[in-house]
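ok here's the first one, seq then C-alpha cells
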Amino acid sequence: MRAPAVGKIEYKRGVDSGVINQGLFYLSWLMDHRAEFERLVRDRLGVTAAAQVLWSGPRLICVAGDFTRYDVHAVREHRRSIDLVRYRLFGSDLFGLETVASVSSRLPVSQCVRRQAAGPGGGGQSMALVELAQAVDESLLGLGDGVNCVQRKMYRAYQRLRNFACVCTPQRTKLLVYLKVHPKQVDLVPGFTRDVTGLGHHGTGDLEVQLRTLRDVERVRELFRMSYAAA
C-alpha cells in the first residue's frame, strides 16, 4: 500500500482571493493537528494506513473559476506546495481543469474529466495509470531539494538546473518517461528501457523508460537518481 500524502483542497465558485488564504489556514490547522488526523485515518482505514501517512510534503490545491495575476505571483513566492486550478464547465457532464500556477506540483490536473464514474471496462485501467503517474511524481520530487515541476502541453518536466526527467501524458497501458541518462550507461531491457537517441519524441532525454505497474517504479529508481545527479 502506498503511503497517503497530506493535503487540503479549497474550492470557490468565482474569482475569490480568499480561496488561497482560507486554504492555507486550514492546511496549517491540519499540520497542527496531526494526531487527530492520524486517529481519523486509523479509524477509517486501519493501523497500517495511519502509520504510513506522509507529513513531509503537504500541499494545497485551490480550485476556483479564475485567479488574478496577483494570486499567481503570490503562490510562486510562497514556501508551501500550492496549485491554483481553474475550472470550466462544458455542458452537463464535463468539466475542464487547468493548472494556472503550480509549486512542486504533484497532481496531473490539466485534463478533462467526466463527472460520472467510469463504466465497466475502462475505469480500472485509467485509475491504475493515475496511481502510477502519482507514484512517479512522488519519486521524482523526492529525489532532493530544489526539484521543480513544470506542466507542458504533452509532458511534465522535472527540473533541477535543467530538465532531468520528462513524463508524457499516459498512454492506454503505459507511462513513458524520458531521462537524461546516456543509454550506453545502462543495460537496456526490451519493453522497459530504450535508446531513443536521434528519434523524435516529446520531452528531453535519450533514455526512454516504459512503466506499466507500480513495481516498475521501484525498478526505475536508480535511473531516476542517475538522471537527477547528471542535472
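and now the second one, same deal
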Amino acid sequence: MSSSPSGSPDRAHLPGWLALAGAALIGALTAIQARINGQLGLRLDDGFVAAAISFSSGLVILIVLSLVLPGGRKGLGRLATGMRERTIPWWMLVGGAAGAFTVATQGLVVAIIGVSLFTVGYIAGQTVSGLALDRIGFGPGGVVAVTIPRVAGGALALVAVVLSIGGAPAGQTPVWMLILPFAAGIGVAWQQATNGRLRQKVGSPLTATLVNFIGGTVLLVIAAFIHVGIVGTPQPLPTDPWLYLGGALGVVYIFLSASLVAHLGVLLLALGTIVGQLFAAVVMDAIWPAAASPGLVREIAVVTVALASVLVVAAPWGRFRRSS
C-alpha cells in the first residue's frame, strides 16, 4: 500500500497482525451491537427509537471524553479551525449518516433474521464497496492496487455470503431484510474511509468519532420523531441495563475504524471485520438463535471461508515470490 497522503507515520508503527486483530475486534463489537440494538428495537416495537437511543448514549460519552481528554480538546480546536478556514470539506463531516443507517437497520431487522444473516448482507456491501474505494484512492492510504489476491479475497467473502444465504429457512427471510444490511455495509466502508481522512485533518480519532455521532444522532432523532408521529408511541423502556450498551460499543468500534483504516486500507479493514463479525455471530446465534438462522454447521463453514478471504488478502505474496 502507498504511504499516507499526509505523510503520517502511523502505519509504520503498528504491526500488521495487530491491526488485523483490531479489525476483527471491530467486527465482533459490530455483531454484539447489532444483537443489542435489534433486541432493544424488538422490546420497544420501534427500531427507529432504539437506534436514536443507541446513538444518543454514544454521543454523551464522546462529548464527555472530548472535553476531559487533552487530545480531544486539541482535536476539537483543529476541527473548528478547519471548518472556519474551509480546509475540511463538508463531505468529511457527514460520515455519521452511514452509521445512523446501520444502527437503524440493526434495530429493524436483527431481532427477526438474527445476527448471522444481518452480517451476511453487511459483509457483501463492505466487500464490494471497500474494493472500489481502495481502487479509486478514497481512503487515507491513497490508491491501493487491485491485485489478484485482493480480488480473490473479496470473491471468497462473497462466497461466504452465498453459503449463509443458501442456508436460510425458505420463506423466513424477506428480501428487503437482506437489502438493508447490504446497503449498510456499502455505507460503512465509505464511512471508515471518510473517518480516516477526517482523522488525518484533525489529528484525533476521538474527534472524528464525535463528528460521526453528532450527525448520526441528529438524523436518528428526527427519524424517530417522524416515525412515532406516524405509528404512535413505542412500548415502555425496558429496564435491562445491557440493552443500552449499543452506543458505547459504537464509540469503541468507530474510534478503532478511524485509527486502523490508514494501516490496512478500506478493503482489508472490511475483511478483518468480517472475521470478527462472523465469529461473534456464530457464538451469539448458537446461544440465542433467531428463526431465520442458517444453522450452526453452515455458520462454521461460512466463518472458515471468510477467514480464508482475509488470509488471501493479507498474505505477503511478494515476499513468497522473491524467496522462490
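notes on #2: The chain has a mean pLDDT of 80. Residues 96-136 form the longest helix (41 residues).
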